[in-house]
């Protein structure tokens, strides 16, 4: 038993990020948002300013409160916003889609419907210490068609923490804590989209130069609607290694762990740039958000240049949940 415990401790310690790596993560504020800098390379921006839409596009698509760009350690941008096929897609973000409030349908994702939306509200905290940087921001989920007037339906405190792993990798912790002030609560309806963490990949990636792999061995053709502990997305890039990617981990305390996935099947979305992956905790079962009760979802991302194997992905997940 003692040997087993020593082995487990050694495994966890070896699996954890090496924050002794020489590069540090620092924060820089701009007019658009808060940049996370890995050394002198910007690797992540949380956008606080409303992103305007292209001329001629419905103005309701403009929004704030999302991550873009997310870049690999060498600077390869892995996210995309406002693609022409889905102007409401914003890099990495987590809006709920179908919700019921007082018997009405409210959609916080499809902005053109004008029923609901999610935007940045305020910065709550910022911290830099030991080579690690962290922010906590408040995001407001608005019910735009409430009978009396527009009102707050869900208040979300989102914490984003970035730390180096090694020369070609860094880590992002993405933790969402949310509550509702509404006395009758909010019902997040079961649907194939919504909540969790959504990732719209770079326009460079398509079915011929990128791959999707889940913890259960599913690929892009078979992953949609299945449950997973983690999902690994990687593809060709201009990085010196010729490849970059992102591993997204789902914590075992999350609502529907192992969490259902929405992955655009390549037979339906086979053009280059049509790669979308989302952890969707309400895919198979509705979720009642009760008043004045805090709900939490935790995700971790490993962002990298080069290759990352399934065995490494599993080790990262085990370290995350330990």
Report what the structure shows.
This protein has 322 residues and is mainly beta. It has a single domain, classed as Distorted Sandwich (Beta-galactosidase, Chain A, domain 5), CATH 2.70.98. It is built from 2 helices and 21 strands. The strands form 4 sheets. An 8-stranded antiparallel β-sheet has the order 8-9-10-11-21-17-16-14, with helices on one face. A 5-stranded antiparallel β-sheet has the order 5-13-19-18-15, with no helix packed on it. Strand 2 (33-38) and strand 3 form a beta hairpin. Helix 1 crosses helix 2. The longest helix is centred in the first third of the chain and has 14 residues, at 2-15. It is globular, with a radius of gyration of 19 Å. This is Methane oxygenase PmoA.
